[in-house]
């Protein structure tokens, strides 16, 4: 896949719109794709676009902006109160970070939206049907993701003593881990996180705090229950504690 840089990609998108008469549409993986191809020297470039892919990417970027706005709201209160935003140590002393609010008219545009959403470009030395090229790329991408999971996704310790059975066992453990995660996401409604490493980070931050107040019985509070975990765990975690601290102690 060609690296997604604004300049080169805008040129490819311009070519895509200029050659609408040569666009080919097909369905792959429950998504509708349209594609145009052209030869550039010894390479053939395939410019793909999918409205479903664009919608997914825009939705993720909207969620990212929403998170940033929530963090910014907290920082805004600190700025309005004249509080420091942070302190950083330096060789000559401490750097004190202070903020200044630059207001704008209207809604804040999403800085993560580039206009490239839904587009991607594949380069190949083979001149073939776009659907075959996309399927070949997806198959290679699955293999690369599996190798990546072997290295970092499951975060297993390195094998010190290599043998045929050790390699088979290693691959089997990673495969079963991926199966469990994939099945969990399959039965979830709109899972936010699909990356195993990121999902593990959220699960690691999940905390159970037990408070023993003066009135006698223990109060169990679950903290760091992020929105990314809600589609997966749902109300299951409530059996272990409350998600909010009681108003009265």
Provide structural commentary.
It is a single chain. This protein is α+β, with helices and mostly antiparallel strands and 249 residues long. Among the domains are: 6-50 and 118-142, no CATH class; 54-97, no CATH class. Helices cover 42% and strands 19% of the residues. The protein has helices spanning 6-18, 51-80, 130-153, 164-186, 196-205, 230-233; strands at 24-28, 31-40, 43-49, 86-90, 93-97, 119-124, 207-211, 219-223. A 4-stranded antiparallel sheet has the order 1-2-3-6, with helices on both faces. Strand 2 and strand 3 form a beta hairpin. Helix 3 packs across helix 4. The longest helix is centred in the N-terminal third of the chain and has 30 residues, at 51-80. The mean pLDDT is 83.
- Termini Cα gap: 58 Å
Count of individual helical segments: 6
Tell me the total number of β-strands: 8
User: Which spans of ≥5 residues are poorly predicted at pLDDT below 50?
Assistant: none
- Class from secondary-structure proportions: alpha+beta
Binned strand content: 15-25%
The major beta sheet can be summarized as: 4 strands, antiparallel
Mean pLDDT: 83
Report the principal-axis shape: extended
Task: Give the SSE string.
Answer: HEEEHEEEHHHEEH
Indicate the percent of residues in helices: 40-55%
Strand order of the largest sheet: 1-2-3-6
Radius of gyration over alpha carbons? 25 Å
